[in-house]
Design goal:
Low-confidence stretches: 406-421
Structural class: alpha/beta
Largest sheet: 7 strands, mixed
Distance between the termini: 17 Å
Shape: globular
Number of strands: 20
Number of helices: 14
Radius of gyration: 24 Å
Oligomer: single chain
Helix content: 25-40%
Mean pLDDT: 86
Length: about 425
């Protein structure tokens, strides 16, 4: 009887580092989240490491929190990758079918994918994904799974994503210094697409835009196939910086302002019967007020206009982000091939009016994508900012994880002591490990 498996995903972002630990049930193949930990990121800029020691400490803190919650230790992880060094291309491979009866077997498929992978790369680049889009058997093309079919010649078109070798080695060093193995590097756009896009959208043609703090990842699907991947060195942190400069406040306050406006919708305020013009104008002004004192515990008494902050400061930066995306997609002749439009996810997708700006700039339908809802400890993670992290679990589920070790004893859980809060968390984790 197959055993349950454990999948661990670590999303190392510019703003936060998230670790999720999930268990895949051997019988139902359902994913259950056992441990969650999100900590502020240190040592990262534009999704790349700038201080190795700080990133090592961040990952250790995040991993430790998730392990404590799950009540187990992990030995291998899937890690997200983003940043301006990500690049992609489409490649073809051709092989002769090896079987005497000309029936295509798994070995033939593996060989043709390897043939497509054999591309010339700069010495500082390496392949992290080879995703077969479709196969061609003799003269019949558009085949998704050729195994079992009969033919002489097998051809494959694959989408290849590359990353800078040094960026990967730096992340790998941090993970291995913690005694863990990297099971795979996963481009954050692919990870988010796993749990945000529907198969119908992919078939129609759609672009996923994962807006992180320091970078924005893009994945475009045409006729169900991934045809373009890229990462831009601009993200939601730039919107925060604009608010800080425009309103002359600190970055922390600017972030609070941005988050407080995330659910903002301009309301059509109508005058009440018998209300004077002065009272009506005052009521409109009050509805538009953003009191910084409420966001900064009374340290700042300034009052801002919500509409002015959004339209005068935030929207121009969002227009710039979507303008850059439009240039990238236009260069690949993709905009006319994605009638399903764009799906926004990542922490930046929670920014006020962002879907409306995307529709206006790209002239396409746009929506904010929520990740797939899982069972277990998911109360605080069912939101766009955790799409990449959840996607790592689902990607890992498809690739395989590590077997569940026997449940720890109560004594081993409490070994090493800790604060009373830690002990309570350990006790809860232990009890959960005994439940079916």
């Amino acid at each position: 009887m197959p055993s349950d498996t454990i999948i661990t995903g670590i999303d190392i972002g510019t703003d936060k580092c998230v670790t999720l630990i999930g268990k895949v049930d051997a019988e139902t193949r359902a994913m259950k989240v056992l441990g969650v930990s999100a900590v502020p990121a240190r040592g990262m800029k534009k999704s790349q490491i700038i201080d190795l020691e700080q990133v090592l400490g961040t990952i250790n803190e995040s991993l430790d929190g998730a392990e404590r919650m799950a009540g187990l230790e992990v030995s291998s992880v899937y890690v997200s990758v983003a940043g301006n060094h990500i690049a992609s291309l489409n490649s073809k491979g051709v092989v002769a079918v090896s079987s005497p009866d000309q029936e295509i077997a798994r070995g033939d498929v593996n060989r043709v994918i390897e043939a497509a992978r054999a591309i010339s790369l700069p010495s500082d680049k390496e392949v992290i994904h080879v995703i077969p889009n479709y196969f061609k058997v003799d003269s019949q093309d558009g085949i998704r799974d050729p195994i079992g079919m009969t033919g002489v010649r097998l051809e494959a078109e694959a989408h290849i994503i590359t990353a800078m070798s040094t960026a990967l080695r730096n992340i790998q060093k941090c993970i291995e210094d913690l005694g863990l193995t990297v099971r795979g590097f996963v481009f954050s756009g692919i990870s988010a697409a796993e749990v945000v896009l529907s198969e119908t959208e992919k078939e129609l043609g759609v672009a996923l835009i994962d807006i992180g703090a320091g970078s924005t990842s893009v994945c475009a699907y045409v006729d169900g196939a991934l045809v373009y991947s890229a990462s831009l060195p601009i993200g939601a942190r730039h919107i925060t910086q604009d608010i800080a400069l425009g309103c002359r406040v600190s970055l922390d306050v600017a972030e609070k302002v941005k988050l407080s406006l995330s659910g903002y919708k301009e309301e059509a305020i109508k005058p009440h019967t018998g209300e004077s013009k002065t009272d009506y104008q005052e009521r409109k002004r009050k509805a538009d007020e953003l009191d910084l004192g409420e966001l900064t515990l009374g340290q700042n008494t300034e009052v801002l206009s919500k509409k002015t902050v959004i339209e005068g400061i935030m929207v121009p930066r969002m227009q710039e982000i979507f303008g850059l995306i439009q240039e990238k997609l236009d260069a690949q002749d993709i905009l006319s091939k994605i009638p399903a439009g764009v799906v926004l996810t990542g922490g930046g997708a929670e920014t006020a009016e962002i879907a409306a700006v995307a529709r206006q700039e790209l002239k396409l339908p746009a929506r904010v994508g929520m990740p797939t809802e899982l069972s277990g400890l998911t109360g605080d993670i069912h939101k766009p900012s955790f799409a990449t992290s959840i996607g790592l679990l689902m990607y890992g589920k498809a690739q395989g994880g590590e077997p569940v070790k026997s449940s720890p004893s109560l004594g081993s859980l409490f070994k090493g002591g800790g604060s009373s809060k830690d002990l309570v968390q350990k006790a809860i984790a232990f009890i959960k490990s005994l439940l079916p």
